[in-house]
């Protein structure tokens, strides 16, 4: 997924917060480990779509309808 987020720095590490981060984490959990799971937002980005066109198997996750994302 892609989108705006809040980034905080604590010492040498960074934390990210926000809706985009939460959705990205949920999509990540849907990956089987040998695939790429991306949101439609990413696929709608021409640069990302061009890169992902070279990948054998990409699953596009529709955030609006995926039942696993409601929890």
Q: What's this entry about, in short?
A:
The chain is an alpha+beta fold.
Explain how this protein is built.
By secondary structure, the chain is α+β, with helices and mostly antiparallel strands. The chain contains three helices and four strands, in the order ββαβααβ. It has helices at 19-30, 40-43, 46-52; strands spanning 6-10, 13-17, 36-39, 58-61. The strands form two sheets. The chain has a two-stranded antiparallel sheet with strand order 1-2. A two-stranded parallel sheet has the order 3-4. The protein is elongated, with a radius of gyration of 14 Å. The chain starts with 5 loop residues before the first strand and ends in a 10-residue tail after the last strand. 10% of the residues are buried. Mean pLDDT is 80; it is low at 66-71.
Q: Per the principal axes of the C-alpha atoms, what is the gross shape?
A: elongated
Q: Strand fraction band?
A: 25-35%
Lateral arrangement of strands in the main beta sheet: 1-2
Q: Give the low-confidence spans.
A: 66-71
Radius of gyration, rounded? Answer: 14 Å
Main β sheet profile: 2 strands, antiparallel
State the end-to-end distance. Answer: 17 Å
Summed up, the helix count is 3
From the structure provided, what is the oligomeric state, counting identical versus distinct chains?
A: single chain
* Overall pLDDT confidence: 80
Structural class by sheet pairing and helices: alpha+beta
